[in-house]
Every structure is written in C-alpha cells, then in structure tokens.
Design goal:
With about 140 residues, the protein is an alpha/beta fold. It contains 6 helices and 4 strands; from the N terminus they run βαααβαβαβα. It has a single domain, classed as Rossmann fold.
C-alpha cells in the first residue's frame, strides 16, 4: 500500500522516535511511504529549502495518490490537521494515533466520519499494534 505518514514538523519534534518507529515499521512491511523523510532527524534541514507552494503541491499530490493516511497527532500541528482534513475530503482512510493522556483537538476526536479512526497508545511499541489493526481492517474491506 501507499501510505502517507503525517506528523508535526514546526509544532515540535518531541515524538520523533515514535515517528521513526512508525515509518520503519511501515517500510519493513513493504508499504511505500512517500513522506518517510518526515520521520527523520534531518527533516528540518531538508524542508527549510523547499518553497511553501512546492510543499503544498507535493503533499496534496501524495495524499491524492495514497491508499491511506497514518497521522501521529500527539503534537498539535496546523499542517497535520490540514492534511487530515484534505485526506478525508478525498475519502481516504485516516488513522490518527496519539499518546494516551495527551490532549488532542476535538475536531479530530469528535469526527464521526466513516473514514477516520482515532486510537491511543501508552507505550511506544503499542503504536505498532494500533497501526497493524488499522491496516488489517483496511485489507478486510
């Protein structure tokens, strides 16, 4: 599957280790992740040289072409929220996962769309189980 991974960049990188675990797991399972670089420590150096219009065009094209979106939403981010809304507007399945106990926007947790799934995790390794369940459900449809 082609999976668009979304996470905070300018909002904060506190969960960067989780981002890397998610992307590494998706790639190890054979999925294509065009946004793989977002999970890497050097992303800020890479993205600073890209024009905002290029980012918008590139990322919306990637969402248009993906089979699903996996978003780690523990850190508030305008960009992640926009990507989630854009994907839902394209009827893409979206998983929003976040650390248990971290406040997440009610615009995400209160969304009752059939194409969004919001799940929490406590331990770092639990996020992999959350992703595996989401992907298994997609494959069963």
């Amino acid at each position: 599957m082609n999976i668009y991974f979304s996470c905070s960049l300018t909002g904060g990188r506190e969960y960067e280790g989780i981002y890397e675990s998610i992307v590494d797991h998706l790639i190890a399972r054979g999925h294509e992740v065009p946004t793989e670089h977002l999970a890497r420590p050097e992303v800020m150096d890479l993205e600073v040289v890209v024009d905002p219009e290029e980012v918008y065009q590139r990322d919306t094209t990637w969402i248009d072409e993906c089979d699903a979106v996996v978003a780690e939403v523990s850190t508030p981010s305008h960009g992640v929220g926009y990507e989630i809304a854009y994907a839902l507007g394209q009827a893409k399945p979206v998983l929003c996962c976040h650390r248990r106990g971290v406040p997440v926007s009610k615009m995400i947790t209160g969304n009752n769309s059939d194409t969004i799934v919001v799940r929490t995790y406590e331990e770092d390794n639990e996020v992999i189980d959350v992703i595996n369940m989401f992907l298994a459900d997609l494959l069963d449809q």
